[in-house]
Design brief:
Low-confidence stretches: none
Helix content: 55-70%
Mean pLDDT: 86
Oligomer: single chain
Shape: globular
Strand order of the largest sheet: 1-2-3
Largest sheet: 3 strands, antiparallel
Number of helices: 14
Strand content: under 5%
Distance between the termini: 64 Å
Structural class: mainly alpha
Number of strands: 3
């Protein structure tokens, strides 16, 4: 099983151009399945074994989202094995996905977002790390980036004249994203004060490219300072970015492009207008409101 997992990982990297993070997750899911089946030969894996595995996952009280992710990894793996002739029959074809609960992404109101970003303002004029923190928060909200996309930004990716940044997203796909003047100004101030100029925009206190964990810690600090509601994280900026654009009239297709979603259905989850927005529309539109 191990050698086939490695072959599959190379396929994902070379042919599918998947990111290292995605490939690692696939490998971890498949290693978990390999431990479950033990010494069972690939040719002997059938519908019953797969059903037992799903039952095993359910006993561990994993969410349906996690189970579906594991099953998705198995689907891709066995599709690869049958396509390349390692297996004659794909046993996963007979397995249906567990029903997954629909969860709306958490988001901040515009007021909460402003409060959180301004929480970095008092410190941002005093030292280099404060300027960096302010620039990170402004960039998150202005461009709606994933954490990995923000961490991977280099100075050459920013066009200060056109107000755009080149982002390397999922599957190593590049896209151009607009970025506002406020965020650009914050980045300029940070760059001007940096003693060490390297390719990476955002650095840690040791002068090296900041990590995703480092960014999450920074955002967590300002969430605590601002006293914003629980459930807010670095990724909440991306949810808020999309929600606020849609609430202010942006069309779904544009938001899809800005977020770098391959499918429009992925973006549709953001159509969860706030109660206040819905009530305002209702009051204006209904003849007896």
């Amino acid at each position: 099983m191990e050698k086939y997992i490695e072959k599959f990982a190379r396929y994902l990297e070379i042919e599918k151009n998947y990111s290292a993070h995605t490939i690692l997750n696939y490998k971890l899911d498949l290693v978990d399945f390999a431990k479950f089946i033990g010494e069972t030969d690939l040719e002997k894996i059938d519908y019953l074994i797969l059903r037992k595995y799903l039952g095993f996952l359910k006993q561990k009280n994993l969410s349906s989202r996690t189970v579906n992710r594991r099953l998705s990894a198995l689907r891709s793996f066995f599709r690869f094995l049958t396509r390349d002739g390692y297996l004659k029959v794909n046993p996963v074809l007979a397995i249906s996905s567990p029903k997954q609960e629909k969860r709306l992404p958490s988001f901040m109101t515009e007021e909460e977002t402003a409060k959180l970003i301004e929480g970095a303002f008092a410190k941002s004029e005093k030292d280099l790390l404060g300027l960096r923190d302010r620039a990170i928060l402004e960039t998150f909200y202005s461009a709606g980036l994933r954490i990995s996309e923000l961490v991977g930004l280099n100075l050459e990716n920013i066009d200060f004249i056109s107000g755009t940044i080149k982002v390397l997203g999922k599957g190593k796909k590049e896209r151009l994203v607009p970025i506002g003047d406020t965020a650009l100004t914050a980045i300029r101030k940070y760059q001007d004060k940096k003693k060490k100029q390297i390719a990476a925009i955002f650095l840690n206190k040791n002068g090296k490219r900041i990590t995703s964990r480092g960014v999450m810690d920074i955002v967590g600090k300002y969430i605590h300072i601002a006293g914003v509601k629980s459930g807010v994280s670095a990724h909440t900026f991306r949810h808020s970015f999309a929600t606020h654009l849609l609430n202010r009239g942006a069309d779904l297709r544009t938001v899809q492009e800005l977020l770098g979603h391959a499918s429009l259905s992925t973006t549709q989850i953001y159509i969860h207008l706030t109660t206040e927005k819905l009530k305002n529309v209702y009051d204006k539109a209904h003849p007896r409101a």
